[in-house]
């Protein structure tokens, strides 16, 4: 495949020569930056915040926060004190122990970050939940993880089914006039006077840090466990890939409900002591450009869907803002279209760097670096210290230009350490020494990787990973729905949209009103981003003889493609 490459950017980068680093790098070099090399113990929140607060960066701005109502900034020293206070609220008003799961279920705000860091300082495992989740999505995750504490807001509290969760002992509510009763604790009532001092819980590098629930093609969402050791990779990739330096002003647009919002919205920048911008509220092109101008953002990490939405907001809008501070732009979550890269060159005069990784991988794996030519449409090359390959279904490496399973040699520092409560599922990711991603791809003769699609039925809509099974399960709870099959349908802006094929129960008439009612049902029951944008009624769904819905047949119908092998089809 021949594409016009965008030449490497000359200059002084943290990864100045990719080939050289790839040939010689050893993760041991990075470990020495952290306290376990001296004390044998560690805490990621200490390394991200306190280490800087106790040193020369004490008065450096760690966090700029803005949303429609707030505009604030906090130094590393203030972040240390405020996360200590949050930790003390949890310590004094709950019986949180090391290793307990604390879930955070709230929109972005400075308090969200104080609580995440504070809980980690106590040795708890933090499970972030996206604010759009509705009751059953919240329940599934808290139930599976047996969370002891949830921190939420007054607005979201009604979606926490407290009485149905026996393991849940404390519900900390962030908001005004919270009434303390039963398990409910008023965060602000205790935060104000909480002590700024805290004895950090030092943990082992193999102890749990984050529990991110993510979707697969079957079953309920699964809890991907990351441990403190992952910070080695967070730190190093923030250098190599985000190319962060001392003076940078960095903005990652992802919510901590997704892995990008924790790994590169918290740890990446703060482990390096870099100023981090966090923006709350909804996507809005004006507000986003204004944010870059206001803070003089230099490194900007976002997603293809966001770039495509900015693109459709028009080039004139870009010209209204001074975006000249931007030095480095990155993207993650879905294939980055060459068209978007060309648009980035036109309006920002900057290359957009694609990065590939997954919730399970805990950090960047295949990326484009400033020092390297970009081939638009390619995810780039593996980071130093990581071996990537295309393998067949038996674990044999395939030669260049052959499509197959994108796989990574086991053992990189941020690799997930467990699927919560589900060792079989964890094992199912591996063939021998290979972690098999579930993505199909090929590698060209120069070692660039090219994404081709998901091997399974997982849907990527607006960069968010949605499991069709979860949506189908919710759909069949609707009284009119007998059966449902859900697929991702290609969409020019969102990557994919969710489309549901629905067979109605007898006695129900197909109508536009019913479609809307079903859509709202999923929106209210699960999450807005999981509600099907399109619904098509059909008599019957294609199923295997064992009764499994054949989503690939639905997809073929939708796209007018050949349906392939139908030997297992019911009739
Ligand atoms: C997809 C997000 C193409 C892929 C950090 C992967 C991508 C899934 C890219 C993981 C990319 C992520 N190009 N596809 N650069 N990055 N994906 O767990 O299918 O939410 O398996 O992690 O997103 O999604 P997740």
Description:
With 571 residues, the protein is α/β, with parallel strands linked by helices. It has two domains: 16-441, ANL, N-terminal domain (Rossmann fold); 457-557, GMP Synthetase, Chain A, domain 3 (2-Layer Sandwich). Helix content is 29%, strand content 24%. Strands 2-1-11-10-12-13-14-15-16 form a nine-stranded mixed beta sheet, sandwiched between helices. Strand 23 and strand 24 form a beta hairpin. The model has no long low-confidence stretch (mean pLDDT 94). The protein binds 5'-O-[(S)-ethoxy(hydroxy)phosphoryl]adenosine. 5'-O-[(S)-ethoxy(hydroxy)phosphoryl]adenosine binds at residues 214, 258-260, 332-335, 354-359, 379, 437-439, 451, 454, 460, 465. Pfam families: AMP-binding, AMP-binding_C. One of its GO terms (molecular function) is acetate-CoA ligase activity. Belongs to the ATP-dependent AMP-binding enzyme family. This is acetate--CoA ligase.
